[in-house]
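Box 3.1. Reading complex inputs
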Amino acid sequence: MVWRKGFFNGLRKGLRIYLELVIVIVPLFVFVTFLKHLQVFPVLEAWLSPFMGLFGLSGTATIALLTGFFFTAYGAVGIISALGLGWKEITILAVMITICHEVIIESVILKKMGGSPLRITALRFAFALSAGFVLNLVL
Amino acid sequence: MDWIAILLEGLSGSVWVLVRMLVVLVPIIVVLEMLRESGWLERISNKISFIARLFSASKGESFPIAVGGLFGMTNACGVLIDHKRSGVLNKKESRHAAEMVGINHGWIDDPILFVVIGASLPITVFAKIVIAILWGKLVSLRKKGKQ
């Protein structure tokens, strides 16, 4: 009985999260496809590649990284899947973004939990960037 | 430029991501929820509390950290507020637990999302464990320094 209840609750919850993902991923995927055709990426490559290269990322990945840092990991996943990056870049982005994401919303929760949001967020950025740097050297 | 064609390209391109997520993510959430409903969550979270201690957390702090790892930050926040009110954790301990959960939550669903779109599972998991241990060391160094 308990298992059944858990199954149906889980199904409901899982589908709700899935729906949230769909709502975020589809528009972003279309948006990135438009950017691709508008030739935005060569410009990003030229400007940002020297800096992003520190983390083994191309300039194009900047949009994914910033979306993950400031908005949601879901959004970053939508963008990454549309960019067609290699496994190394996706893995680096995965580690960096799972360390540091949704900093604005999560700061509010951290405050409620009794932590110092500013310090924790600063450390999250520092850890994310150094993890990207180290992974680029190792992978 | 053919706007409609680009729109269709974007829509059709996103389908494979959505299918893979439906197949991988939803079953995982169903299993997690079944474990919670049956009371196994409590047991598992207690069992894996030793992992949290690997991250230099004390015994009382490790339960909210394990909850944050398995069920996300919001649930960890709920547990933490409850523990603080009932006096299981003092102010300093709950701040330490919040710092631990802050960098290190969503051990299962977040990495899975990225693995579904092409990240390497072993490397992602390994990197996250190393970072959690380093973070735990850093946070507890500070805790000791202030005592």
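In summary: Chain B touches chain A through 62 residues (CB under 8 Å).
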